[in-house]
Amino acid sequence: MSELEPKRAIDGAAEESIHIPIAGPASLFTQLKGFWVTFAAQFKKVTTVQYPEVKEPTAPRFHGRHQLNRHPDGLEKCIGCELCAWACPADAIYVEGADNSDEQRYSPGERYGKVYQINYLRCIFCGLCIEACPTRALTMTNEYELADDSRKKLIFEKEDLLAPLRSGMLQPPHPYYPGTDDQDYYHGRVTEAHPSQEQK
Amino acid sequence: MTAVQPQTDLITLTIDGFEVTVPKGTLVIRAAEQLGIQIPRFCDHPLLSPVGACRQCLVDIEINGRAFPKPQASCTIPVENGMVVKTQLTSEVAHKAQEGVMEFLLVNHPLDCPVCDKGGECPLQNQAMTSGRGESRFEGKKRTFEKPINISSQVLLDRERCILCARCTRFSKEIAGDPFIDMGERGALQQVAIYEKDPFDSYFSGNTVQICPVGALTGSAYRFRSRPFDLVSTPSVCEHCASGCSLRTDVRRNKTLRRLAGNDPEVNEEWNCDKGRWAFQYTMVKDRIATPLIRENGVLREASWPEAIAVAANGLQGKKAGVLVGGRATVEDSYAYAKFARATLGTNDIDFRSRPHSDEERDFLAAHVVGSKVRYSDIDTADHVVLVGFEPEEESPIVFLRIRKQVRKRALSVTAISPWQTRGFKKLQAKYIGVAPGAEGNALAQLSLTNQSVIVVGERLCESAGGLSAVAELARKSGAKIAWVPRRAGERGALEAGAIGNLLPGGRPISDAAARVDVAAAWSIESDSIPTSAGSDSKAIFAAAARGEIKALVIGGVDPFDMHAPDFAGLESAFVLSLELRPSAITERADVVLPVAAVTEKSGSFMSWEGRTRSFEQAVPETPHQSDLYILSLIAEALGKPLGFSTVRGAAKEFGTLANWDGARASFTSHPVANAAQGVTLASWRQLLDNGSLQVNEPNLAGTARKAVARINAQLAAKLGVANGDLVTISTDHGALSLNVELSDLVDDVVWLPRNAVASQSLRMLGVLNGAQVNIRKGL
Ligand code: SF4
Ligand code: SF4
Ligand code: SF4
Ligand code: SF4
Ligand code: FES
Known about the structure:
The structure holds two protein chains of two kinds.
Chain A: H1 28-41, E1 66-68, H2 83-87, E2 93-99, E3 111-119, H3 128-132, E4 138-140, E5 155-156, H4 158-161, H5 182-186
Antiparallel strand pairs in A: 1-4, 2-3, 3-5
Chain B: E1 10-15, E2 18-23, H1 28-34, E3 58-63, E4 66-67, E5 72-73, E6 83-86, H2 92-107, H3 123-131, E7 149-150, E8 155-157, H4 167-176, E9 181-184, E10 191-194, H5 206-211, E11 217-219, E12 232-237, E13 246-252, E14 255-261, H6 274-278, E15 293-296, E16 299-302, H7 305-316, E17 321-324, H8 331-344, E18 350-351, H9 359-369, H10 376-381, E19 384-388, H11 392-395, H12 397-410, E20 413-418, H13 423-427, E21 431-434, H14 440-446, E22 454-458, H15 467-478, E23 481-485, H16 491-497, E24 503-504, E25 508-509, H17 513-523, H18 538-547, E26 552-556, H19 569-573, E27 575-580, E28 592-595, E29 604-607, E30 613-616, H20 628-638, H21 648-658, E31 681-685, H22 699-702, E32 710-712, H23 714-720, E33 727-731, E34 736-743, E35 750-754, H24 762-766, E36 775-778
Parallel strand pairs in B: 1-6, 17-18, 17-26, 19-20, 19-22, 20-21, 22-23, 26-27, 27-28, 31-35, 32-34
Antiparallel strand pairs in B: 1-2, 3-4, 3-5, 3-6, 7-8, 8-11, 9-10, 12-13, 13-14, 15-16, 15-28, 24-25, 29-30, 33-34, 33-36
Helix pairs in contact in B: 7-20, 8-16, 8-20, 8-21, 14-15
Bound molecules: iron/sulfur cluster (4 copies) and FE2/S2 (inorganic) cluster.
Residues 162-168, 192, 212-214, 216-217 of chain B line the site of one iron/sulfur cluster.
């Protein structure tokens, strides 16, 4: 077995010195060519942006902060399946699922994400979680201003990640749109909230 | 396992071009495993009888050049000479057949893996990837059912996901003997069903959840709690009874989320009971004692460890003390208590039996149990098993399964001596000898056994005077083996560790001078510092404390209400040091309370009823708690008489040097069988699921506990003028309790009550033991 292993130096004495050849100073022409590059750059169009006074839009598919989406009536799309956490190569996502009941319904179907955390100190914005998500609950926004001054603040909770309620949406928990079931939600047949869904 | 393996004929066959020789009767799928060839399967399980229900294991088989016309299920076909088997690895036909079966299985499968608890550890997911087609051609509508239905409070059934492998139904019928689930309907509508009115009432139902190859059966307690990749699994040992099951404890972020049965062919095979599987919340309850507490002006206040240790040492210094270990300590902790009592406190007043006990029992343990090596395998080879003072299904479920296995396999004859013919006895097809409680000894004297027989004795036989003497006499006469099965997991270990007044570690009789010299030498103390006479037992220790003779008590994990008429007076007057998990009747009265680690938070070992050491490692990585032995070592240090170890490893090593004793065992003098009490007598024992302190916070588990009822037979019912379901009141001088009657197969003039059900704590409420006379009347 030891045959296959690289030989390691046991102590300093056994190490071989490495010889790096140095060619001497560059020729005058080469040096002038270098100065020219610098000089010519002064006349090029400036690409520096005076951030944060000026903010350029990102590329449309830029990987920014995550968002947990909602169905059109406000129910959460996340089913707490942990597939995003599984896919994450940086172990940045923590999910705990829980049981939906008719009285306490957060998402269509049996299961919802009770605890949902993304640790932005770990996240490398690779987007593998987005690809793993079976319900399109998790997507990425273009928001990139994520710097903060404590570790704690950089662990985003479910409230921080959930998409805001748009008009026509109701804050879960609330029941299904009357006369529908989970399949109707998955097939996009629920398009708005119904007043009867509001829970006192 | 010294039993000689019977000579079996060997058979040689070829699988995928490799020759393999296996015993006759081996199934093709097993023979392939010997070669490391994995044939996909669902219904096949090595401990269940083959059915060939799923058809996933199809292979091509040829015998002596004649091929089967179609691929065959390798899990149902035994090997034969000259067989040539081609699996999916070498046969295109087998491969295609397996893909076809998988496609059919998935036709009605909801594929809702993201919300399925099996996702990530699902044989169907895995084998759909390895042996299935990438794409489905099915475009129709899938069969749907209501999702999920509770077949008991702790088992959920999702019929959409079921692939009808019949593992669960076969387990229930063949292993547990509780056929409360079965296949209903036919064809595409076939489904696992429960009987309309009977819930899935089995102590072993958790095993069906574990062996279901899909997410059709899941546990309520673990529902949506985690994914396999979140869990850190540690091989563990169950702390709930003396069966000694090996378990696997799965922990997510310092929280125990589930426990599964481990695979130990010599002990629990692949099974366990629902208590071991589902009762673990007690370590995570809110009222766990978190810091040391000391009593000041009558109330407990929090204290630092150094302060509490100093107060404890001060309270114990120079006083005559008694030590109560409780039956739940690990071997190492018990050993530490045993050494602490002798070497630090200089007393033999130590007892691990925090339950009804007798002197007869103590002598019996010293003479016939300590050091004995009766094993589960002795049940496998027994010609006759006698159960006395013991209901195996309630009191040691794996002993029950093991006996039942032999009953099914070779019609092992079983005799049950008991006042009530329970369902468990019926499942063992036991010959029932109905005796009034207290008269077991007389029935034992009538039996004739051989040296291949095993007498399985429960701890509660000590309540019948003369019972254990009759066991000893029967064993002497016939050469039968004695298997003493306590209920608590720590009792056998504590006995071996010497946490009892008449024995030193390793079963050395305290009265034996050589034994004392032996132990004193190992402990590096003066041999005359070990008292020569046997110490008091638990009850006598409490009584002596009440009389003021014992002035300090060290109590670890004891619930005084488990004992018979405990005398609390001593707790008020003596200095009491309590090592506990949670507030109890002892901590309420203790002067110093020190929190200890639960089983999942420490390493150590238990001893099964066989005396087999069952070691386990710490499962929960981060804990503020320390084991009993570490805390005792601190106190011993403060008292100036150190224990000489402070780690589990250190204690285990030292105990290892003392564990065996080849000197003489203590002698045993027979006690006569007591005369039966007049009138109606009480029979009572604990059931598996009850009000036990290690089962707190488990509503799903508690939902499958047996209903608390008073059991009487028709004769007594007629005498009282009550019918099934009527209320009766049972009373003694001590108290009374009222329960509904259930007519059962009992002996005349006996009423059976659960000993520790939520609604019926017979010991605490009535204050009497088995065989005592009680009053019973109709109504309240
Ligand atoms: S965000 Fe998507 S992948 Fe993650 S838990 Fe929720 S549903 Fe599953
Ligand atoms: S049983 Fe297996 S394949 Fe079926 S939904 Fe559950 S995880 Fe998926
Ligand atoms: S419930 Fe599970 S174990 Fe039972 S038949 Fe269905 S798939 Fe098999
Ligand atoms: S049989 Fe006993 S040791 Fe086994 S799991 Fe049940 S309680 Fe635990
Ligand atoms: S494993 Fe052979 S038929 Fe199911």
